[in-house]
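B., you asked whether I could sanity-check this one before it goes into the benchmark set. Here's the sequence:
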Amino acid sequence: MKRLALLAERTSSRLVPGATTAAALLAVAVLAIGCGGSSSKQSSGTSGANTQRTVNTEQVEKGIESSLSTSSVKVTKASCPSDVPVQQGATFTCNVTLSNGGVGKVTVTQQGADRYTYAFVPGSVKIPGATADEAIEKSLAAQGIPNTTVTCPENIIVKVGTTVTCNVTGGEGKVGGTVTFTFSEANGTINTQSVKTT
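And here's what the prediction gave me:
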């Protein structure tokens, strides 16, 4: 910048008196452009410093799979959004697939310092009726009522403690009509002790 100003002064001394003003204006314009360029670099650097950190999606998905799997039902796959900002106390939702054929949603709560808690969203987990059919038929066989055919609704919404009613036939004449059961866990585990026939 100093060289440009000196150049402008030398040029003005060689020019006719009317050109001195023009040369001075040129020098001021060059200085103004130089200042403007440096201020725009500073503002872009500031915006880069404000980039917010996002949640480690892979860590959360593995955490869901290990924390919400039980001996009877495993979380076989978790899928979380990849652009969740880190913010202690904030929550977000992930989708899960279960070993019993069910699907559902999980609420993830950020506890801070890469720590999270996980919980199934109430009423979000659905299991296929065929999964319930098989579990109830086994439970009835264990109760001394073999060879039953259970028919539950095509998809069952899992609500712990809520009674589900299915149709049942067979059982060597010991049953006919309906069978009821409840879920013991939000992942779709059937409480075998709750299975009762009419």
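One thing to flag: Strands lie at 75-79, 91-98, 103-112, 115-120, 126-128, 148-151, 155-157, 164-170, 177-181, 196-197. Otherwise nothing jumped out at me.
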